[in-house]
């Protein structure tokens, strides 16, 4: 019965999507030629009418199960969907940015704006939203939704910068509060909340760029409009279903920089920051190369992101339980040497070479994510009564990597292209690994 309704829905959408010249397009034959010709100045071409009916049908079709789970499902499902929506918001436009920002500096700055806004807003959020976690999450969802609507209907580079900044502040408001609320929401499952939080982030990481590319190929505004409406649905469900958490989110530790005096904490943090920097720079610039130099469309370029996302997740899952037995130091330094060596031999003219580098970068990111947090937790628990400062530094190190990576990558890309960018990071990564191998 369900498949019959889906067939009727797509058949009706197909009939409504006939072009004036009599050329018929189907859901699986939508051309993205016109999409790749969009520029920032073409405001009148950003919102087309060719596939408007199909866009409306798809939005309604996708929002119905989201609405059902948000209002009728358990509270942990709502908390998981909010976390996944934030991850989707980050990854959704990655393959689209290269069409909006023409030069590498604008592209790098656009990618870095959201993590920069999140990093700057996090201390203020923690300071002023304790005991107000529910209101903080509502405001965060509202800001993210407003930023997505701005991206959907305003193809201006300045507007997109403002939208990404608002989304970064929204992420800080949401993620700071979701950690306090996830524990209450998952009591019925017996989970601490950390597992569901991680898996929902990974789901958004995997689906974000491909989903954004497919929807953008149908209509430019479609991915942003859909996710903005989904955020409003989650906001409404949050208002009616969630209560304030029983335990407030932790505040900022008094001496947050004190753990950096210990090399067993500062060195793994620097290592993770370097790997995240390279991964963020590669993600920011590789779509530009694929879409402009290799002439790939938005959809195939967006799916190449899976070659980094899946190895990262699988490596983190597989190495996590065995990290202590194998050795934290061995895994971390091996990951640095592997990704650095791969960066040195990148050929930006070869599609297969770029795919191989995405896989290598994903493996290295997964290895570091599997070892560094566990190592820091082990060291902090043996040397400090309160480990919250270590977790704050871990989050700060990752945010610094996500901000500096695209900015430094843009400068290096402007100087000599993707190959120069990768080789510079490769020398840095291998040099750091060798310097600590000698110690």
UniProtKB/TrEMBL annotation:
<feature type="transmembrane region" description="Helical">
    <location>
        <begin position="139"/>
        <end position="159"/>
    </location>
</feature>
<feature type="transmembrane region" description="Helical">
    <location>
        <begin position="220"/>
        <end position="240"/>
    </location>
</feature>
<feature type="transmembrane region" description="Helical">
    <location>
        <begin position="195"/>
        <end position="214"/>
    </location>
</feature>
<dbReference type="Pfam" id="PF07690">
    <property type="entry name" value="MFS_1"/>
</dbReference>
<dbReference type="InterPro" id="IPR050930">
    <property type="entry name" value="MFS_Vesicular_Transporter"/>
</dbReference>
<feature type="signal peptide">
    <location>
        <begin position="1"/>
        <end position="15"/>
    </location>
</feature>
<feature type="transmembrane region" description="Helical">
    <location>
        <begin position="165"/>
        <end position="183"/>
    </location>
</feature>
<keyword id="KW-1133">Transmembrane helix</keyword>
<dbReference type="InterPro" id="IPR011701">
    <property type="entry name" value="MFS"/>
</dbReference>
<protein>
    <submittedName>
        <fullName>Probable vesicular acetylcholine transporter-A (VAChT-A) (Solute carrier family 18 member 3-A)</fullName>
    </submittedName>
</protein>
<dbReference type="InterPro" id="IPR036259">
    <property type="entry name" value="MFS_trans_sf"/>
</dbReference>
<feature type="transmembrane region" description="Helical">
    <location>
        <begin position="54"/>
        <end position="73"/>
    </location>
</feature>
<keyword id="KW-0813">Transport</keyword>
<feature type="transmembrane region" description="Helical">
    <location>
        <begin position="326"/>
        <end position="346"/>
    </location>
</feature>
<feature type="transmembrane region" description="Helical">
    <location>
        <begin position="296"/>
        <end position="319"/>
    </location>
</feature>
<keyword id="KW-0732">Signal</keyword>
<feature type="transmembrane region" description="Helical">
    <location>
        <begin position="269"/>
        <end position="290"/>
    </location>
</feature>
<keyword id="KW-0472">Membrane</keyword>
<keyword id="KW-0812">Transmembrane</keyword>
């Amino acid at each position: 019965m369900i498949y019959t309704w889906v067939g009727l829905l797509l058949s009706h959408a197909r009939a409504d999507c006939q072009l004036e010249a009599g050329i018929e397009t189907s859901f699986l034959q939508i051309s993205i030629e016109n999409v790749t010709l969009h520029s920032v100045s073409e405001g009148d071409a950003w919102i087309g009418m060719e596939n408007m009916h199909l866009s409306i049908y798809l939005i309604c079709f996708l929002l119905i199960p989201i609405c059902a789970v948000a209002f009728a499902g358990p509270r942990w499902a709502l908390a998981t969907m909010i976390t996944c929506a934030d991850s989707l918001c980050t990854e959704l436009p990655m393959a689209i940015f290269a069409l909006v920002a023409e030069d590498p500096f604008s592209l790098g700055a656009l990618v870095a704006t959201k993590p920069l806004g999140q990093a700057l807003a996090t201390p203020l959020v923690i300071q002023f939203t304790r005991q107000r976690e529910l209101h903080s999450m509502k405001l965060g969802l509202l800001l993210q939704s407003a930023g997505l609507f701005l991206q959907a209907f305003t193809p201006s580079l300045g507007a997109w910068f403002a939208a990404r900044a608002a989304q970064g502040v929204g992420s800080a408001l949401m993620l700071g509060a979701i950690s306090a609320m996830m524990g209450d929401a998952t009591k019925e499952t017996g989970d601490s909340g950390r597992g569901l939080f991680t898996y929902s982030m990974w789901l958004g990481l995997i689906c974000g760029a491909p989903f954004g590319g497919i929807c953008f190929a149908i209509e430019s505004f479609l991915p942003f409009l859909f996710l903005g409406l989904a955020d409003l649905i989650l906001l409404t469900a949050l208002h009616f279903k969630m209560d304030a958490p029983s335990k407030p989110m932790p505040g900022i530790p008094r001496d947050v920089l004190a753990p950096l005096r210990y090399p067993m904490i500062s060195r793994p943090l620097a290592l993770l920051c370097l790997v995240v920097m390279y991964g963020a720079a590669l993600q920011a610039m590789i779509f530009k190369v694929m879409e402009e130099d290799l002439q790939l469309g938005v959809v195939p370029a967006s799916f190449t992101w899976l070659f980094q996302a899946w190895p990262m997740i699988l490596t983190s899952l597989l190495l996590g339980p065995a990290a202590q037995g194998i050795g934290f130091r061995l895994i971390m330094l091996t990951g640095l040497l592997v990704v650095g060596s791969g960066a040195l031999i990148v050929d930006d003219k070869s599609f297969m070479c770029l795919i191989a580098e995405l896989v290598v970068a994903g493996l290295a990111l997964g290895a570091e994510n599997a070892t560094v947090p566990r190592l820091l937790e082990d060291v902090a628990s043996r040397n400090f009564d309160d480990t919250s400062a270590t977790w704050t530094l871990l989050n700060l190190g990752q945010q610094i990597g996500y901000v500096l990576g695209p900015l430094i990558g843009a400068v290096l890309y402007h100087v000599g292209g993707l190959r120069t960018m990768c080789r510079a990071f490769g020398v840095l990564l291998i040099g750091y690994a060798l310097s600590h191998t000698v110690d």
